[in-house]
Amino acid sequence: MASDAGNSVPGVEDDISLTISHHGKREVFTFPDNATIADLAAHMEEVLQIPTTNQKLLVSPKPGLLKSPFSNDILLSTIATRKITLLGSTTAEISALNAQVNTAKTQLDRRRGPVKAATPARNRDWKTLHDRTTYTFLQIKPLPYLPNPERSTAFLERLRDDPGIRASMAKHKFTVPLLTEMNPAEHTTHESRTLGLNRNAGEVIELRLRTDAYDGYRDYRTIRKTLCHELAHNVHGPHDRNFWELCKQIEREVDAADWKSGGRSVGDEEVYVPDEEDVVADHGGWTGGEFVLGTNAAAPAGSSGDATQAQPMSRRDILAKAAEERMKRDREQRDSHGNGS
């Protein structure tokens, strides 16, 4: 797909050359000196088969993130020497994702069809077995073009098999056709970072597994809490009182089931320590539900979230708590060795 020879606009004299990065590959385009960002978007739709509405351009340094509808007021000559990254999926990629969703929905419809009666075997909990295969995520999928997709697969499998998540999904009879990861670059602005998305009341759930620099993964319990939030959007779209009551109920159910099964402590987890401005809050501007990191918005009035949950710990508090946990583990290990055990 990439070509350093350039993609010229036919019928014009080429005066400006731009290098566009897309999925790790480079595309070189040439335009007249009076061309605008809207001209670039239209040309990329024709050459790369990426609809204009799916395009986002990350220009560094400023103006930053640009998205549809693109303005005719920004000349390409003003950004020609800057780093430009194209974010967006081709028509073929969108069709492939829709096909996967349709396949998963077909499997779900088949599961809900008539089931022949069978004589249960001894010592087998058929209801539990039915719940585990029905009320779950029917398919998990990482983003194959990001580094280490196998690690993302393992992370998603861990969420799917989490005893607390399983118990809550079975209780509320939640079946989600597809659980996948989110590309941080496509859901990051100067104001916020989206942690999770729920499409069409539980058709697809996307989670932001990776750190912004793609060099690690976020804290498992933070992502699991985000998943609880997105599961609540299977029932309630708006962030109203009913939504927050269900969200907190799911969080309590997940924590309780994890405690009963001897869940791992925070000290055993792979922890991402956020910047001080990275506080977990909610943003209600996306139909279907979206959990955002990096805003200072508290839960809506009348919600069941308490003040402690609405106001997360600062970076200093997080680091102090982590240091206390390390000191506690060191003392326990020394005491254990001192007793000869």
UniProtKB/TrEMBL annotation:
Compositionally biased region (Basic and acidic residues): 314-341
Family annotation (Pfam families): WLM (PF08325)
Region (Disordered): 296-341
Molecular function in Gene Ontology: proteasome binding
Source organism, top-level taxon: Eukaryota
Annotated ranges, domain WLM: 128-328
Protein name: WLM domain-containing protein
Species name: Carpinus fangiana
